[in-house]
């Protein structure tokens, strides 16, 4: 037996690579997943400083640990459209070990428009908007915190932002009354009745704005040069293709300086450790004043900015990646475009569409398995119309024609028009009409699908549901705030979806389904309603209990109930109206005392053969067919009621 002093103690290097890798993963920054955490894609991905330093130090120990830890260093590669950011990313992916760990390439398409850089007034308008938002934020927190140290700090910050905003808004001679044709310092003193010290403060704030504008112009010219040389898409594609793990691609419009991340509660950490109460006097203010802008932010300007060049990357980047031999495994799309700026998408549509270009784009998306479109916080109250809508439908149609798609999550909330203003219990006119895109999509290998804030016609919805019968790998489907256009009904599409799910169950599949906020086509003006604090939830009597009608629709589709709730509700509404007329309004909620009375009332209420009620749809109730769809549903409802099974 060997002596104890000759036994070498175990060290970290004696552990197997698999265990070491798990240890390093536990302290490394997690990669962002476009499916599991789509809302986090836009936010700053900043790893814990202590964990990052641990990974960096581990790489310096020896070659073996460097090989294991390097892929965990940069799980998310952020790229801004400026020379410095692109050069840095290109240098980073030249290290094969670091590039091997990149799981997401996140390219921000936020920009600095030329008309803003060339106009002091336009630039000043944007900075005024920023200062006003920060002033209101600090003032609101100061008021909510009462008389505390926090309230005093935010109150002082609000005064600083007010001083900046006041100086900027009154510091341009062309905005002054015509009789004040004087130099800035003299004009301020006479117009605002300021003392000499107050004029000095105004002057320093004005010089701050001029300095910011000069540096903003420099950065805009650098960015513009990248688009004008025609090589931007190729540089980004080459960078993407150097990553061997086939990462996901996210196109977002997150600015260089994410202002919204400073709108936090007191005590929370701000980006870079800069507290919002000190931002007006910090070096970060320079970064804020020269930052790029998001597209919805630019859409608030009056007049709107000139068309942006960055949306063209939605077209040129995927095709360039494909031409260089790469593939996009997952695709995340932030805002597609803003009003008056769809040129990046519709320069190939119109009277003479470029068929070859569309084929190239379709080929570029051929290997994509996951697609996420998420417009959170990008509301612009704009309904794409005309050529804009054609371009959007064409682009999404190409994207969803890929038979390899497995996961689809499409949220079009930003295109809601007149949100909650003109709904009149029917939000279908407010949602964007993209039903034709989904009815023609190819979902043969789809596993999960989620659609939000879209309006279909009844036929488009039926075609879409019919496709699902061939989706042998489907695990889940979610329809949230999906509407049927006026004139259509949900009843028939639900029957089709039920048949599709029945076919999948016969094949051994049992996919989940979630309905939220369905509207139009029978879901509006239902018989029962109840407030839940956040709005009205419609209910239906089901198995002697009251459950949400969306849940009842889900049970019907999954085969757990034999009654289509839409047909039952339409019949129940007709039944309630007739009962109210017969018994009087005050007794309309009373139940009939016996089955004989119910049967007698049902016989009296049943329409004569060949008759059409005033409230029935002529297309849905054929007077020559006594067993029309509505009459069949009504008969089914009455049979259930008479049989003692209230719907």
SSE layout and pairing:
Elements: H1 17-27, H2 49-59, H3 63-69, E1 76-80, H4 83-93, H5 96-99, E2 104-108, H6 114-117, H7 120-144, H8 149-169, H9 184-192, H10 196-228, H11 232-241, E3 248-252, H12 284-289, H13 295-299, H14 313-323, E4 330-333, H15 343-346, H16 355-364, E5 370-374, H17 387-400, E6 407-411, E7 432-433, H18 435-439, E8 448-456, H19 458-467, E9 476-484, H20 491-506, E10 512-516, E11 528-531, E12 536-542, E13 545-548, H21 549-557, H22 565-583, H23 595-605, H24 629-642
Parallel strand pairs: 1-2, 2-3, 3-4, 4-5, 5-6, 6-8, 7-8, 8-9, 9-10
Antiparallel strand pairs: 11-12, 12-13
Helix pairs in contact: 2-3, 7-8, 8-10, 9-10, 11-14, 14-16, 19-20, 22-24
Can you put this structure into words, describing what you see?
The protein has helices at residues 17-27, 49-59, 63-69, 83-93, 96-99, 114-117, 120-144, 149-169, 184-192, 196-228, 232-241, 284-289, 295-299, 313-323, 343-346, 355-364, 387-400, 435-439, 458-467, 491-506, 549-557, 565-583, 595-605, 629-642, and strands at 76-80, 104-108, 248-252, 330-333, 370-374, 407-411, 432-433, 448-456, 476-484, 512-516, 528-531, 536-542, 545-548. The chain is of the alpha/beta class and 647 residues long. Among the domains are: 114-228, no CATH class; 567-642, no CATH class. Strands 1, 2, 3, 4, 5, 6, 7, 8, 9 and 10 form a ten-stranded parallel β-sheet that branches. Strands 11-12-13 form a three-stranded antiparallel β-sheet. Helix 7 (120-144) packs antiparallel against helix 8 (149-169), helix 8 (149-169) packs across helix 10 (196-228) and helix 19 runs parallel beside helix 20 (491-506).
């Amino acid at each position: 037996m060997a002596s104890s002093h000759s036994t070498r103690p175990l060290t970290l290097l004696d552990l197997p690579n698999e265990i070491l890798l798990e240890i390093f993963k536990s302290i490394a920054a997690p990669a962002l997943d476009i499916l599991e955490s789509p809302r986090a894609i836009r936010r700053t991905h900043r790893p814990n400083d202590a964990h990052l330093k641990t990974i960096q130090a581990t790489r310096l120990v020896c070659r073996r640990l460097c090989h294991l830890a390097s892929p965990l260093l940069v799980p998310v590669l952020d790229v801004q459209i400026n020379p410095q950011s692109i050069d840095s990313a290109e240098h980073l992916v030249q290290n094969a070990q670091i590039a091997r760990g990149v799981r997401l390439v996140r390219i921000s398409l936020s920009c600095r428009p030329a008309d803003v850089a060339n106009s002091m007034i336009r630039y000043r308008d944007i900075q005024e908007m920023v200062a006003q938002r920060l002033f209101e934020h600090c003032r609101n927190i100061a008021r909510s915190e009462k008389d505390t140290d926090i309230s005093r700090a935010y109150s002082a910050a609000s005064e600083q932002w007010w001083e900046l905003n006041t100086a900027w808004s009154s510091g341009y001679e062309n905005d002054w009354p015509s009789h004040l044709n004087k130099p800035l310092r003299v004009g301020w003193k006479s117009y605002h009745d300021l003392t000499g010290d107050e004029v000095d403060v105004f002057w320093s704030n004005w010089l701050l704005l001029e300095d910011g504008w000069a540096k903003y112009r420099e950065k805009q010219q650098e960015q513009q040069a990248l688009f004008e040389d025609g090589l931007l898409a190729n540089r980004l594609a080459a960078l993407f293709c150097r990553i061997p793990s086939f990462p996901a691609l996210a196109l977002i419009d997150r600015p260089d300086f994410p202002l919204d991340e400073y709108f936090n509660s007191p005590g929370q950490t701000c980006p870079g450790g800069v507290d919002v109460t000190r931002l007006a006097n910090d070096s970060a203010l320079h970064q804020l004043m020269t930052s790029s802008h998001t597209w919805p932010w630019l859409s608030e300007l009056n007049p709107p900015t000139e068309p942006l060049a960055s949306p063209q990357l939605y077209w040129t980047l995927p095709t360039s990646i494909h031409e260089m031999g790469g593939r996009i495994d997952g695709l995340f799309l932030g805002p597609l475009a803003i009003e008056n700026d769809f040129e990046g998408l519709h320069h190939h549509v119109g009277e003479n569409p470029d068929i070859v270009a569309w084929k190239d784009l379709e080929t570029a998306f051929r290997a994509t398995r996951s697609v996420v479109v998420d417009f959170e916080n990008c509301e612009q109250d704009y309904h794409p119309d005309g050529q804009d809508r054609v371009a959007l439908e064409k682009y999404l149609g190409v994207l969803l024609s890929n038979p390899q798609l497995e996961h689809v999550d499409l949220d079009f909330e930003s295109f809601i028009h007149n949100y909650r203003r003109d709904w009149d219990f029917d939000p279908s006119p407010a949602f964007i009409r993209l039903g034709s895109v989904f009815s023609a999509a190819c979902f043969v290998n789809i596993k999960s699908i989620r659609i939000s804030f879209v309006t279909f016609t009844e036929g488009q919805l039926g075609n879409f549901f019919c496709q699902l019968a061939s989706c042998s790998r489907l695990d889940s489907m979610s329809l949230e705030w999906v509407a049927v256009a006026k004139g259509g009904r949900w009843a028939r599409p639900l029957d089709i979806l039920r048949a599709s799910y029945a076919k999948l169950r016969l094949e051994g599949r049992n996919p989940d389904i979630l309905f939220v906020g369905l509207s139009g086509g029978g879901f509006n003006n239902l018989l029962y309603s109840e407030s839940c604090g956040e709005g009205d939830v419609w209910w239906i009597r089901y198995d002697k209990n009251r459950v949400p009608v969306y849940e009842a629709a889900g049970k019907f589709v999954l085969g757990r109930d034999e009654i289509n709730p839409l047909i039952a509700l339409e019949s129940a509404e007709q039944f309630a109206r007739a009962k109210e007329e017969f018994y009087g309004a005050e007794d309309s909620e009373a139940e009939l005392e016996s089955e004989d009375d119910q049967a007698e009332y049902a016989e009296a209420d049943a329409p004569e053969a060949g008759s059409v009620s005033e409230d029935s749809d002529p297309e849905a109730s054929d007077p020559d067919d006594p067993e029309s769809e509505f009459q069949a549903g009504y008969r089914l409802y009455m049979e259930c009621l008479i049989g003692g099974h209230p719907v």
